[in-house]
Input
Amino acid sequence: MLRELDQEYGRRYGHTLGDLAEEMRRERERFGPPDGGLVLLLEDGVPVSGGAFRRWDADTAELKRIWTDSRHRRRGLAARVLVELEREIAARGYARIYLTTGWRQPEAQNLYLSTGYRPLYDRSRPPEEVGKHPFEKLVARAPS
Output
């Protein structure tokens, strides 16, 4: 799944991010408990959509690599992943979620806007001038 994500970044931006699987392994402790987490949706035991989070600061979790396999898109899977990530983030005591997405990823931008994320950039500017598109969402911390 990460290989396809990297290939798509290459098609959209003209370069890849390198080995995303290696990034996830290298930063395993940041994406794992107690500060981070991973959600995968499986179909017949194969990952079809997923995403991860890690600590950004004391009150904020950062979402990373929310992705759906191209053969499984348009089924609401990324939105389901987002709901599960948000639930887990709230359960870990975070109050805010932060993320960035690229200017050539309108599908991701629309997902975040449609699920209550607030853009932290001027939406009236051309996307390529903005560069990375940051978003945030406040979440209700789960009762302890």
